[in-house]
Write a structure and sequence with these properties.
223 residues; 7-stranded mixed sheet; 6 helices; globular; G_ENGB_dom
């Protein structure tokens, strides 16, 4: 990486810090398409298997321990939860896919809502698909990626719980996922390794969000 690239990267990290330095508040929840808020903000959605750490990562991203509700019980998030950040950005915490400690009919309803949201949300800039770094991509994850590719929805892989792996394990995990993504048309090539325990990767994730806003000509400073 040359000096220009380093300066650009440092600038995005600072832009991301500023973006998440102000207010971040819950403002809407939807269990049906009819209850979705108007398509006004740029939206960034967080998807992943149940208990992968979506809510914890949103809390780390915003620097607020209780913004998104966390639980050790899979299936705690039972709707699309919207969080306003600054003037132009909304974060969307999605119900986890896969196992959840609720009845099958409710899981099927969540699944329908998720797919309908992903296909019909014109202001959705990117889906961050969270993968537990300890386990890598599973069949349920690849099914979701297939759906995102088919719907032409831009997505990026974010590994969670990165503090649980040794450096050599991280490198092997990254190589494996990079190979799996190589032929996926909607996948953003960079994989982010994060941990909500020690904040590793959080500045880079904020920078990625700031870049998406900049690409749309929107200011990133929180307001």
């Amino acid at each position: 990486m040359d000096q220009t690239d380093q300066d650009r990267e440092a600038g995005l990290v600072e832009a991301g810090r500023l973006l998440f330095a102000g207010n971040a508040d819950f403002y809407a929840a939807a269990q049906t398409l009819e209850r979705l808020p108007p398509m006004e903000d740029v939206e960034i959605a967080f998807a992943g298997r149940s208990n992968v750490g979506k809510s914890s990562l949103i809390n780390a991203l915003t620097g607020r321990n209780t913004l998104a509700r966390t639980s050790h019980t899979p299936g705690r998030t039972q709707q699309l939860n919207f969080f306003k950040v600054g003037k132009h950005l909304s974060l969307v915490d999605m119900p986890g896919y896969g196992y959840a400690a609720v009845e099958k009919a409710k899981v099927e309803a969540w699944t329908h809502l998720i797919h309908a949201y992903l296909k019909g949300r014109a202001n959705l800039a990117r889906v961050f698909v969270l993968i537990d770094a300890r386990h890598g991509l599973k069949s349920l994850d690849t099914d979701v990626l297939d759906g995102l590719d088919k719907a032409a929805v831009s997505y990026q892989i974010v590994l969670t719980k990165g503090d649980a792996l040794k450096k050599s394990e991280v490198e092997a995990r990254l190589r494996g996922i990079e190979a799996a993504l190589a032929k996926r048309p909607a996948a953003f090539p960079q994989i982010l390794l994060t941990s909500s325990r020690d904040d590793r990767g959080v500045p880079e994730l904020r920078a990625a969000v700031a870049k998406l806003l900049e690409e749309r000509g929107l200011p990133v400073r929180a307001g």
